[in-house]
Amino acid sequence: MSVRRVMGTEVEYGISVQGMPTANPMVASSQVVNAYASATVRARRARWDFEEESPLRDARGFDMSRQVADPSQLTDEDLGLANVILTNGARLYVDHAHPEYSTPEVVSPLDVVRWDKAGEQVMLDAARLAQQLPGNPSIVLYKNNTDNKGASYGAHENYLMRRSTPFADIVRHLTPFFVSRQVVCGAGRVGMGQDGREHGYQISQRADYFEVEVGLETTLKRPIINTRDEPHADPEKYRRLHVIIGDANLSEISTYLKIGTTALVLSMIEDRFIGRDLTVDTPVSSLRAVSHDPTLRQTITMSDGRRLTGVQLQLEYLDLAKKYVEDRLGADADEQTLDVLARWEDVLDRLERDPMSLADQLDWVAKLKLLEQYRSRDGLDWDDAKLQLIDYQYSDIRPEKGLYHRLVNAGRIQRLLDDEVVERAMTEPPEQTRAYFRGRCLEKYAAHVAAASWDSVIFDLPGRESLQRVPTMDPLRGSKAHVGQLIDACDTAEALVSALTR
Amino acid sequence: MAQEQKQPRKSGEEQEATEVAPESDVAERKEALDDDVDAILDEIDDVLETNAEDFVKSFIQKGGE
C-alpha cells in the first residue's frame, strides 16, 4: 500500500583501461573485483589457502588466490568466478565484461538510493585498489549503459511481489508506466539508434535497445517486461519482478523517484486498484519516440484513442497513486510514501511548465543543460565529439573527473543523502531484511563463512565435517530486530549456529 | 542556483518587483547569469579529457546483462 517493499538494484559499470583501448574488459573487471575483495576481506583470505585445489569451493565466491596470477593466464571461465559478498550484504562480481554491484535487499526507496550510491563508492575504491596491482592498470568505471557504438549493459531493479498477482496484470499496467517513466528517470544520451548513427540528444540511455514487449532475454531482443522468475524466496508466496528497462542514474533524486514511483505502481497492481485502461498501442516504438524528444511534446497513442505525452501518461499514474494512498492509507500514510508522491507531482508539473528547472534534480536534464551550454558557448553541433565525451564523462565515477560529481560539488545538483551516510552503507547492512544477517555474519564470523548467497549463509565450523547451511528464504527474516541481539551475544560462528539450530 | 533565474516567478509580489525593476538590474542579472555559466564551464573545461575524438573512438564496451 506504500512505497515500501523488498527491493534492490544491480548495476553493471562501463569499464576502460586508460591508454589501453584493447585491454580485455573481463580481465580488467576481474582485477577490480578481486582488488576490492582482497583488500577488504583479509580474514578469509588466509583461511582459504588450504582449499585452493577445490574448484567447487572457489565457485562459492571467496577465492582470492588468483589475485596473484598474471591476468593473461586466466581464462574467461576463471574470470567469471570473481564474486564476493560484502559486509553490507551486497554482491560484487564480474558479469560478462563488466564489474557489477547488486545492492543488499532493502525496504524503502531511500535505502535503495543509499546502498546503490554505496555501490558507486565500492567501485571507486575497487578501481583505485586495482591500480596497485602488477602493471598498475589505470581502470576507469562509468555508471552508464551504452558506448553509443551498439553495446548496452544494464542497470536492473528487483521488486519482490506477491505470487498471487496474475502476471498478465503486471504486463498490462506496468508497460505504459515503463514507456513513460523515462521522462522522470532517464539518464540522457548523446546519439540515436543502437550504434549512435544519428546525432542528437535523447532522454534515455536504454530506450533504443528494447525490441519486444515481454520476454525472458536480457541481452538480445530486450523486452520492456522481463519474465525472469527466480524469486530467491518462497516461490509459492513471491515472485521477483526483474526490471531491465531502467537507466543507471547518478542523481539521487532520479533513482529515488524511479524506485519509489515503480514501487507504488506495483502496489496498485497487486491491490487491483488500476481500473482505467492505460494501454499503449505500440509500446516499443512509443518508448523510443518519447525518448527521442527531449522537448517532451511527442505523443503516444493510447488503445482508447487518446494521444498523451509521456508526462501526461505519468500524470495519469500519479493521479491514481494519490487516490490509492488516500484511499488505503489516508492519514496513516508513511513519510516516504508522501514524499515520493509530492516529489513526483512537483517533477511532473515542472516537466510540463519548464523542464530545464529540473537541471538540479534529474540526470537527463542536468546533462542536457550542460550540453546546451557547451553548444551555445562553442557553437557545437550534435555530431561534435566533445558532446559525446561530455555524455560519457558525466558518468565517470571519480569525483575529480566525473561531470555529475563536478556539478554536485559546484552546488548545481541536489542530493538526498550526505557522504557519511553513504560511506557507512559501504560496510553496514540494511537492518530490515535478511541482508542484515548475511552482512553481520560476514563481518563478525568471516573466517567461518564458507559461502553466502541471497537465500543462505553457509558456515564451515571447526570440528564439523559437513558445512552448515542456514537458509534465509524469507527476505524479511534475519533482520536486526530478529537476530541483532543473538549475533551480538554469540562470540563465535559455532555459538551462533548452535543457537540457531537448537 | 543558476537555474532559478529561469523559473517563472511564483508570487505576485515578485512578479511586480520584476516588472518595475530598472533596466540596469536586469542587465546585471543577465551578467551574473552569464558569469555563472562561464564559471561552471571553466571548471568543466579543466577536467574534460583533452582529446575528445580519441577518447570517443576508444570508448568501446562489450554488451552485458
UniProtKB/TrEMBL annotation, chain A:
<comment type="similarity">
    <text>Belongs to the Pup ligase/Pup deamidase family. Pup deamidase subfamily.</text>
</comment>
<dbReference type="GO" id="GO:0008233">
    <property type="term" value="F:peptidase activity"/>
</dbReference>
<dbReference type="GO" id="GO:0019941">
    <property type="term" value="P:modification-dependent protein catabolic process"/>
</dbReference>
<dbReference type="InterPro" id="IPR022366">
    <property type="entry name" value="Pup_deamidase"/>
</dbReference>
<feature type="active site" description="Proton acceptor">
    <location>
        <position position="95"/>
    </location>
</feature>
<dbReference type="GO" id="GO:0016811">
    <property type="term" value="F:hydrolase activity, acting on carbon-nitrogen (but not peptide) bonds, in linear amides"/>
</dbReference>
<dbReference type="GO" id="GO:0000502">
    <property type="term" value="C:proteasome complex"/>
</dbReference>
<dbReference type="InterPro" id="IPR004347">
    <property type="entry name" value="Pup_ligase/deamidase"/>
</dbReference>
<dbReference type="Pfam" id="PF03136">
    <property type="entry name" value="Pup_ligase"/>
</dbReference>
<keyword id="KW-0647">Proteasome</keyword>
<dbReference type="GO" id="GO:0070490">
    <property type="term" value="P:protein pupylation"/>
</dbReference>
<protein>
    <submittedName>
        <fullName>Proteasome accessory factor PafA2</fullName>
    </submittedName>
</protein>
<dbReference type="GO" id="GO:0005524">
    <property type="term" value="F:ATP binding"/>
</dbReference>
<dbReference type="GO" id="GO:0010498">
    <property type="term" value="P:proteasomal protein catabolic process"/>
</dbReference>
TrEMBL record, chain B:
<feature type="region of interest" description="Disordered">
    <location>
        <begin position="1"/>
        <end position="36"/>
    </location>
</feature>
<comment type="function">
    <text>Protein modifier that is covalently attached to lysine residues of substrate proteins, thereby targeting them for proteasomal degradation. The tagging system is termed pupylation.</text>
</comment>
<dbReference type="GO" id="GO:0019941">
    <property type="term" value="P:modification-dependent protein catabolic process"/>
</dbReference>
<dbReference type="Pfam" id="PF05639">
    <property type="entry name" value="Pup"/>
</dbReference>
<keyword id="KW-0833">Ubl conjugation pathway</keyword>
<comment type="subunit">
    <text>Strongly interacts with the proteasome-associated ATPase ARC through a hydrophobic interface; the interacting region of Pup lies in its C-terminal half. There is one Pup binding site per ARC hexamer ring.</text>
</comment>
<feature type="compositionally biased region" description="Basic and acidic residues">
    <location>
        <begin position="1"/>
        <end position="13"/>
    </location>
</feature>
<dbReference type="InterPro" id="IPR008515">
    <property type="entry name" value="Ubiquitin-like_Pup"/>
</dbReference>
<dbReference type="GO" id="GO:0070628">
    <property type="term" value="F:proteasome binding"/>
</dbReference>
<keyword id="KW-1017">Isopeptide bond</keyword>
<comment type="pathway">
    <text>Protein degradation; proteasomal Pup-dependent pathway.</text>
</comment>
<protein>
    <recommendedName>
        <fullName>Prokaryotic ubiquitin-like protein Pup</fullName>
    </recommendedName>
</protein>
<dbReference type="GO" id="GO:0031386">
    <property type="term" value="F:protein tag activity"/>
</dbReference>
<dbReference type="GO" id="GO:0010498">
    <property type="term" value="P:proteasomal protein catabolic process"/>
</dbReference>
<comment type="similarity">
    <text>Belongs to the prokaryotic ubiquitin-like protein family.</text>
</comment>
<dbReference type="GO" id="GO:0070490">
    <property type="term" value="P:protein pupylation"/>
</dbReference>
<feature type="cross-link" description="Isoglutamyl lysine isopeptide (Glu-Lys) (interchain with K-? in acceptor proteins)">
    <location>
        <position position="65"/>
    </location>
</feature>
